[in-house]
Amino acid sequence: MTASFPIVARAGAPETQDAVELRLERIGPDFLLRISGGAEHVGALALFDGEPKWIEIEGHREGALAAEAARTLGPKLGGRLVVVAGIHYDSISREAIARIVGNVRKLAEEISRALG
Questions:
Q1: Rounded to 5 degrees, what are φ and ψ at 64?
Q2: Cys staple from 99: which of 18, 39, 50, 79, with CB 3.0 to 4.6 Å?
Q3: Cβ distance 53 to 92 under 8 Å?
Q4: DSSP for 43-111?
Q5: pTM of the predicted model as reported, rounded to 2 decimal places
Q6: Residue 24 CA to its chain's centroid (Å)
Q7: Do residues 31 and 24 lie in contact, with contact meaning Cβ atoms separated by under 8 Å?
């Protein structure tokens, strides 16, 4: 793997409540992906070590998205991947949530391509 770390990808805009950032860092032989947007926090964790596993903090809904990002990036990395996801915008619309999901998917694919 020839990529330089960290790898940071951003999409969306705060004023439209769909801004997100994905930040991939190397930790020894393993990797950490932070998915954040709006008020940063820890809402869910995912681990990729062959298959994605995830847990969600009560009241949060980022778990499936964290697991999807882990499934997209994990096989390319050659080490364990931990994903920490936390996205929060007050009074967010369903449309903005759909844009966030699309942005995270797009950014995960961008990072996947950057990894080669």
A1: -65, -35
A2: 18
A3: no
A4: -EEEEESSSEEEEE-TT---HHHHHHHHHHHHHHHSS-EEEEEEEE-TT--HHHHHHHHHHHHHHHHHH
A5: 0.95
A6: 9
A7: yes
Q: CA 24 to CA 108: how far, in whole Å?
A: 10
Tens digit of each residue's pLDDT (9 = 90 or more) over 31-87: 999 999 999 999 999 999 999 999 999 999 999 999 999 999 999 998 899 999 999
Q: State the CATH number of the domain containing residue 28.
A: 3.30.230
The whole-angstrom separation of Cα 18 and Cα 89 is 8
- The answer to the question of residue 1 being in a domain is no
Range of 26's domain?
7-115
Token digits of residue 4: 């330089």
Amino acid at 63: G
Strand partners, 35: 22, 85
